[in-house]
């Protein structure tokens, strides 16, 4: 080993010639993974460190559509140093007279708010001053977007329900802004007392109450959670605490970050092609050196160790460069990243993500260099007297097995660190399939080009014939270009297809079937009048209405619901509950029977069929639902086919009317109207009945589309790193073939070919390879897009030809530019000098 290290060290004195592509590919792949991991870790650290601020307290208890009882408040006061109440709901902000209305997310707070953090207002003032009662009007603060939408200014008045408020300031930021998740409207903050005469907070209306606590130091949160859930069991509380102050944001960031790491691994796989090609090319140049060492008595192990030491040193340099780049990029772009996030992110150098990226880099470098290194052992001393490169064929069995072990380690690390085992394994399988497809495509392009160059149909077209002959000739240019560029384009093609299909699912499916409005908080004594106004409008095609309550599934067959259903979404939070004597229109029963219209026995339940199958429910099972603090146990009488993607009015749970008799509730309605009738409908209904809230479905679709666009953009940026790595490999392949093109250009010039024709032949060759890579990438990316859309996103897949055409064109353009960039030197070389040197 000491001899091998001495030889390796002396050869490394020759510099990095031949290893620039190696270093660039490895550094880019490691940097991408390190940067994504660092940002994800920064956000998670921000959530952990600012959990109490994001949540609004050390812990909180949420109740569904009811406020805490006196007993509940006494209990909370006994375990906390301070308790603050927040009521959250949607409403219509309405200007006096016939001016505009706008949907807003109202947060009604008390004098304790905020327990932690600060609220920033414009103009600057304390929150309690902004919300105080002055001249008979309670104060309010609004998000700037809502202020602009309503065209009002501080000092102007507006209505929430029946109560008039005075706008005191713009709400620039508030500490618990990141914990609410997806909201349909910009926020408005008011004092709870200001809602007393609004008519918005009554039994049966849709609101959530939250009780945030400042706890004594050293409180055992786990123990207090168990104690609280037991003490307030009758109220069906939901518990949150500072250990995860923004659970929705945290989970979203974690999953998106993990997915981007997988995209980074795809980039590392693309870089692996360049790494392997660079090592193979370097060892080809060292054939005579290897043969000389063998002649002098060096064994196979010594030869392997010499070049393994060299590759190892260079791999360490590449990984270190990648870690430096990946660690600094989040810091450089920290202000931009922080501005785009609703929560604080502690962006700094983080050892964990860097160590993860380094591990990926070490495994990838070993995986992609082992094969060409192992084949160097087969160089014979006779190579000194015969012209030959690194021997073809398979290396020894031990290296084949080692390659398999390294591949398993890489996939295992990706599975472990991503936390998404299923997606990680399928991603690895997809990359492997794409790799095999592109290897096969490279060979097919080479063989097909060779055959086409010999056909009679191409006689008289020398440039095309020469381009095809060059593609099909000896060397690895075709395989390297199709593989490296194809993998990068495959990732982009998959992202493009998924993005287009997600947007298409909204734009393509919903507009034909979606209602114009969801109308909530219609009181029972208002439903007939609202129905008359809507159905008598000739521009309204349909109105569906049903009584609406919200309930939490607490038990299934006498057992805790979460023990039976696990982490299924159906038992997380509250679900929609309705009642009906007759089977509603457009309702399809898949199992069991609907109850008789005059049924008045024990409670019966009709449940959604698909979810029932997923958690193993059967007809005859029992289910306990907590509705406004009352436990109702019913028997499953039927299952219904419910399509939640239709944007129609759908309920998870339907019960017979007698089961919910006396329960306070409101009505929910959907209105299907022509576009030019929507403004009048909203104006008439919300002004006649100020307590009613109308949610525009088109606005909600716009918000969802915007969110999907943000996600797709983030993934696309990650995929662009993969493409950049592929471009580096492509440049390396073009640079490696520069010597051959110089000789070819010299021969063609000697035979009388003008520069323009030679350049056209080089360009045509590059275009053929780029087109081949693009076509295979469209197929591989389309297949991946179909799998992700169908099995991960659960949406219908429709192939998008425009995105596919862009990928093919992109492949042609990239290879064309790379080919032309390395064509000028061969074209400018003098034929006599080139031919004499070759001679």
Major β-sheet strand ordering: 2-3-8-5-7-6
Please identify the structural class as seen in this structure. alpha+beta
Q: How many runs of DSSP E, i.e. beta strands? A: 21
Helical fraction? 40-55%
The termini sit apart by 40 Å
The radius of gyration is 34 Å
Overall 3D form:
elongated
Global mean pLDDT: 81
* Percent of sequence in beta strands: 15-25%
Question: Could you describe the largest sheet, including whether it forms a barrel?
Answer: 6 strands, mixed, barrel
> What's the tally of helices?
26
* Low-pLDDT stretches: none
Membrane topology: Multi-pass membrane protein
Organism: Maritimibacter alkaliphilus HTCC2654
Subcellular location: Cell membrane
Keywords: Cell membrane, Membrane, Transmembrane, Transmembrane helix
Topology:
Blueprint lengths: L1 H11 L7 H30 L1 H5 L3 E6 L5 H10 L2 E13 L6 E9 L10 E3 L4 H5 L7 E4 L1 H7 L6 E4 L2 E11 L13 E5 L16 E7 L6 H11 L6 E4 L5 H39 L1 H9 L4 H33 L1 H7 L10 H25 L21 H22 L2 H33 L8 H10 L5 H37 L3 E6 L4 H9 L4 E17 L2 E2 H5 L9 E5 L8 E5 L11 E5 H6 L7 E6 L2 E12 L11 E3 L10 E8 L4 H11 L4 E4 H40 L1 H13 L4 H38 L8 H21 L2 H5 L2 H8 L1
Parallel strand pairs: 3-8, 5-7, 14-19, 16-18
Antiparallel strand pairs: 1-9, 1-10, 2-3, 2-6, 2-9, 4-7, 5-8, 6-7, 11-20, 11-21, 12-13, 12-14, 12-17, 12-20, 15-18, 16-19, 17-18
Helix pairs in contact: 1-10, 2-8, 2-10, 2-12, 2-21, 8-12, 8-14, 8-16, 8-21, 10-12, 12-13, 13-14, 14-15, 14-16, 14-23, 15-23, 16-21, 16-23, 16-24, 21-24, 22-26, 23-24
């Amino acid at each position: 080993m000491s001899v091998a290290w001495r030889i390796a060290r002396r050869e490394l004195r020759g510099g990095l010639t031949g290893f620039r592509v190696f270093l660039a590919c490895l550094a880019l792949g490691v940097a991408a993974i390190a940067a994504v991991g660092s940002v994800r870790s920064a956000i998670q650290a921000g959530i952990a460190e600012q959990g109490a601020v994001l949540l609004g307290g050390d812990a909180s208890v949420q109740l569904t559509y009811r406020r805490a009882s006196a007993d509940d408040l006494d209990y909370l006061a006994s375990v906390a140093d301070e308790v603050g109440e927040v009521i959250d709901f949607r409403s219509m902000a309405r200007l006096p007279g016939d001016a505009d209305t706008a949907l807003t997310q109202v947060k009604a707070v008390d004098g304790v708010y905020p327990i932690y953090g600060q609220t920033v207002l414009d103009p600057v003032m304390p929150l309690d001053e902004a919300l105080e009662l002055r001249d008979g009007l309670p104060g309010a603060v609004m998000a700037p977007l809502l202020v602009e939408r309503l065209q009002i200014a501080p000092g102007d008045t507006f209505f929430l329900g029946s109560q008039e408020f005075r706008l005191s300031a713009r709400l620039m930021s508030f500490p618990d802004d990141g914990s609410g998740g997806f909201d349909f409207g910009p926020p408005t903050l008011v004092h709870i007392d200001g809602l007393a005469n609004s008519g918005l907070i009554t039994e049966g209306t849709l609101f959530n109450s939250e009780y945030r606590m400042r706890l004594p130091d050293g409180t055992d949160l786990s123990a207090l959670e168990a104690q609280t859930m037991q003490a307030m069991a009758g109220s069906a509380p939901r518990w949150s605490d500072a250990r995860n102050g923004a659970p929705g944001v945290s989970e979203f960031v974690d999953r998106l970050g993990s997915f981007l790491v997988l995209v980074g691994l795809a980039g590392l796989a693309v870089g692996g092609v360049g790494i392997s090609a660079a090592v193979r090319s370097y060892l080809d140049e060292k054939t005579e050196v290897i043969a000389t060492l063998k002649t002098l008595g060096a064994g196979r192990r010594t030869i392997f160790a010499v070049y393994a030491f060299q590759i190892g040193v260079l791999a360490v340099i590449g990984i270190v460069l990648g870690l430096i780049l990946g660690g600094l990029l989040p810091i450089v772009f920290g202000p931009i990243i922080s501005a785009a996030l609703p929560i604080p992110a502690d962006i700094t150098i983080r050892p964990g993500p860097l160590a993860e990226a380094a591990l990926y880099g070490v495994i990838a470098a070993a995986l992609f260099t082992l094969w060409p290194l192992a084949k160097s052992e087969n160089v014979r001393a006779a190579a000194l007297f015969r012209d030959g490169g690194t021997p073809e064929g398979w290396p020894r069995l031990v290296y084949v097995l080692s390659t398999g072990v390294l591949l398993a380690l890489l996939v295992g690390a990706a599975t472990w660190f991503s936390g998404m085992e299923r997606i990680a394994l399928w991603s690895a399988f997809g990359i492997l399939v794409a790799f095999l497809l592109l290897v096969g495509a490279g060979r097919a392009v080479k063989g097909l080009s060779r055959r086409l160059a010999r056909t009679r149909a191409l006689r008289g077209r020398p440039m095309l014939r020469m381009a095809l002959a060059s593609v099909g000739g000896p060397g690895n240019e075709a395989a390297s270009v199709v593989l490296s560029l194809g993998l990068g384009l495959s990732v982009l093609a998959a992202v493009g297809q998924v993005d287009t299909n997600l947007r298409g699912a909204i734009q393509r499916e919903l507009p034909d079937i979606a209602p114009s409005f969801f109308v909530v908080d219609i009181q029972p004594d208002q439903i007939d009048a609202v129905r008359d106004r809507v159905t008598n409008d000739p521009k309204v095609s349909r109105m569906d209405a049903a009584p609406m309550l919200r309930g939490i599934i607490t038990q299934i067959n006498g057992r805790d619901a979460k023990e039976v259903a696990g982490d299924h979404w159906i038992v997380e939070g509250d679900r929609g509950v309705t009642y009906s004597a007759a089977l509603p229109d457009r309702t399809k029963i898949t199992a069991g029977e609907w109850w008789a219209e005059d049924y008045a026995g024990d409670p019966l339940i009709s449940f959604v069929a698909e979810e029932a199958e997923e958690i193993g429910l059967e007809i005859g099972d029992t289910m306990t639902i907590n509705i406004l603090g009352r436990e109702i146990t019913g028997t499953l009488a039927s299952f219904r086919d419910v399509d939640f993607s239709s944007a129609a009015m759908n309920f998870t749970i339907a019960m017979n009317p007698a089961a919910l008799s006396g329960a306070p509730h409101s009505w929910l309605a959907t209105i299907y109207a022509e576009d030019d009738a929507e403004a009048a409908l909203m104006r008439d209904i919300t002004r006649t009945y100020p307590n009613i809230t109308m949610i525009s479905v088109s606005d909600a679709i716009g918000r969802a589309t915007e969110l999907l666009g943000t996600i797709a953009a983030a993934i696309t940026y990650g995929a662009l790193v993969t493409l950049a790595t592929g471009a580096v490999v492509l440049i390396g392949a073009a640079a490696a073939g520069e010597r051959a093109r110089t000789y070819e250009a010299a021969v063609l010039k000697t035979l009388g070919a003008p520069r323009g024709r030679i350049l056209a032949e080089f360009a045509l060759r590059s275009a053929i390879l780029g087109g081949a890579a693009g076509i295979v990438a469209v197929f591989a990316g389309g297949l991946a897009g179909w799998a992700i859309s169908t099995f991960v996103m659960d949406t219908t897949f429709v192939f998008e030809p425009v995105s596919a055409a862009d990928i093919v064109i992109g492949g042609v353009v990239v290879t064309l530019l790379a080919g032309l960039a390395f064509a000028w030197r061969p074209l400018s070389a003098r034929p006599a000098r080139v031919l004499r040197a070759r001679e």
